[in-house]
Amino acid sequence: MAVKKPSFYHTLKKVEINEKRAAEILGVEVADVHDFCKNGAPIAYERLLLIWDKKHVGRHGWNGWLFSQDVLLFKGQRFRPESILRDRDFRNKLERDAFDIIKALKTKA
Q1: Alpha-carbon distance 108 to 71, whole Å?
Q2: How far apart are CA 98 and CA 61, in angstroms?
Q3: What's the CA dihedral at 88, 92, 93, 95 to 10 degrees?
Q4: How many Cβ atoms sit within 10 Å of the Cβ of residue 98?
Q5: Tens digits of per-residue pLDDT, 25-58?
Q6: Count of alpha carbons within 13 angstroms of residue 38, beta-carbon side
Q7: What is the model's pTM?
Q8: Is the pLDDT of residue 109 over 70?
């Protein structure tokens, strides 16, 4: 019969970080995290990892970005969904306008 893994192990996999990074976040040694994965950990450690995961954008290329109070933050700048979408729409309009201008210049030439 397979031995059931402790919930800490599954939490660590859910937040998609390695044992070294978990140790840094929790303020413990890597050996402690390894032990938590094998034998379980205090629930406070699991909750801390889940809170950390909700706040940080833990994907490649997103270093320095985090969420706080439903706002995406980066280097002191605040990004709300509506401003990101507005900027996207503005950029798309500029690209369309530039394309139209280039097309018009080519037809005049």
Answers
A1: 47
A2: 29
A3: 140
A4: 10
A5: 999 999 999 999 999 999 999 999 988 887 877 6
A6: 6
A7: 0.58
A8: no
Tell me what pLDDT residue 69 has. 65
- Six-digit token string for 103: 């097309």
CB-based contacts of 17, cutoff 8 Å, min separation 6: 25, 49, 58
Residue 37: the pLDDT is 94
Q: What is the DSSP string of 14-52?
A: HTT--HHHHHHHHTS-HHHHHHHHHH---HHHHHHHHHH
User: 14-44 burial string, b = 16+ CB within 10 Å, else e?
Assistant: ebebebebbbebbeeeeebbeebbeeebeee
Which residue shows structure tokens 């699991």? 46
Q: What is the mean pLDDT of residues 86-94?
A: 92
Long-range contacts of 19-24, Cβ-Cβ distance < 8 Å, separation of 24 or more: 22/49
Q: Judge contact between 22 and 9, C-beta under 8 A.
A: no
